[in-house]
Design goal:
Oligomer: single chain
Strand content: 25-35%
Radius of gyration: 24 Å
Strand order of the largest sheet: 1-23-20-25-17-16-15
Helix content: 10-25%
Number of helices: 6
CATH architecture of the largest domain: Sandwich
Distance between the termini: 33 Å
Number of domains: 3
Bound molecules: fe (ii) ion
Largest sheet: 7 strands, antiparallel
CATH class of the largest domain: Mainly Beta
Structural class: alpha+beta
Number of strands: 26
């Protein structure tokens, strides 16, 4: 299970609810998105004037972005535009908010959790802590951190990058009169909160100030426009690759097959390994690595995932040659020379 698609959702139209969990009394919340199995969620949280909590930690990674107002974090005052990534098990100092503040709060692994502690958990990955005034202490850079890239006029500030999953948290902005004509989808879940301004997408219309989406993988979005510009906080849950095209009628399944077709063409050995271990996508199933990666009795067009843009690519001689190559090292790994710890 993952979070359901919610787009567009304009939180400014909804009311706050009192936050009753330990560590949150004295604050109010709105749920932006929720994974009903793990409890992982994205929240807008208003810490009311006089809010106070003791030093403590959470069993979930937690991210916080200050939209307005100030908060006292130990000796530090953090305000508008401040971003925190707090690894699970890392104890924060006491938190107070004399005059109140509005924030976005993300619990990435589990439901909102806090328990009093002035010590870090022994397993915390404390080096992952990020504390940054994103408005004052980080420069805008071009949006082309991934290729193929968004159009010029979309810029970003990368706030956090997970080296294992390539998940990212970032600010992005669109210049006035921003436009991008193609349609986009990704392999990752993607999330955004509009801090200010309105952008438009062909499928979902205007996303105004306070607008939010949590969008699962392979869903078409774009083309894009922004008349007056906008600034937003964005997150992905894993690697962001921009699959661009111009067909507004494709569904997520067709988009996924097209993404798989790129793996089939561009990383054919990895594709065969994945297909062999996935089983159901492969005509032979997992009948042993060597056989499964060398389906020599099957025409490439029978196993090549469908690409709605290049329907006959499986007939291309170069694609067929790559798909029919048999790698022998897998067989060698299984019979004899054992070098791995898990043997
Ligand atoms: Fe996107």
């Amino acid at each position: 299970m993952t979070r359901p698609h919610i787009e567009p959702y304009v939180e400014l139209n909804e009311d706050y609810k009192a936050f009753g969990l330990p560590g949150f009394t004295g604050s109010d919340f709105k749920t932006l998105s929720l994974d009903p199995e793990t409890g992982a969620c994205s929240l807008k949280v208003r810490f009311n004037a006089g809010y106070s909590r003791k030093p403590g930690m959470s069993y979930s990674d937690m991210e916080l972005f200050v939209l307005g107002g100030t908060m006292q974090l130990g000796d530090q005052v953090i305000g508008e535009g401040h971003y925190l990534f707090v690894p699970a098990g890392m104890a924060l100092p006491a938190i107070t908010s004399e005059d109140g503040c509005e924030t976005l709060v993300f619990f990435n692994d589990a439901e909102p959790h806090w328990q009093e502690s002035d010590e870090h958990h022994e397993l915390t990955l404390k080096a992952g802590y990020v504390s940054l005034n994103t408005y004052k202490d980080a420069p805008w850079s071009g949006g082309s951190i991934v290729s193929p890239s968004v159009a010029t006029g979309c810029m970003i500030k990368l706030l956090r990058y997970d080296p294992l999953t390539e998940a990212m948290t970032f600010l992005y902005c669109m210049t006035p009169e921003f436009m991008q004509d193609n349609i986009s989808y990704h392999d990752c879940g993607e999330e955004s909160y509009h801090i200010w301004g309105t952008s438009w997408m062909m499928q979902f219309g205007d996303l105004p100030t306070g607008g939010y989406f949590w969008r699962p993988p392979y869903i078409n979005h774009g083309s894009f426009r922004s008349k007056l510009g906008c600034i937003a906080l964005g997150r992905t849950d894993s690697k962001l690759h921009n699959y661009f095209h111009f067909n507004p009628w494709t569904n997520p399944s067709e988009n996924l097959h097209r993404a798989a077709s790129m793996l089939y063409r561009q990383r054919p050995q990895l594709f065969k390994w994945v297909a062999a271990h996935g089983g159901h996508n492969h005509p032979h199933g997992p009948v042993g690595q060597t056989a499964a990666v060398a389906p020599t009795d099957v025409a490439p067009t029978d196993v090549a995932p469908n690409d709605f843009e290049h329907v006959d690519y499986g007939d291309d001689p170069q694609v067929q040659m790559l798909a029919n190559q048999v790698m022998r090292f897998l067989e060698a790994d299984r019979s004899g020379h054992h070098h791995h710890h898990d043997d």
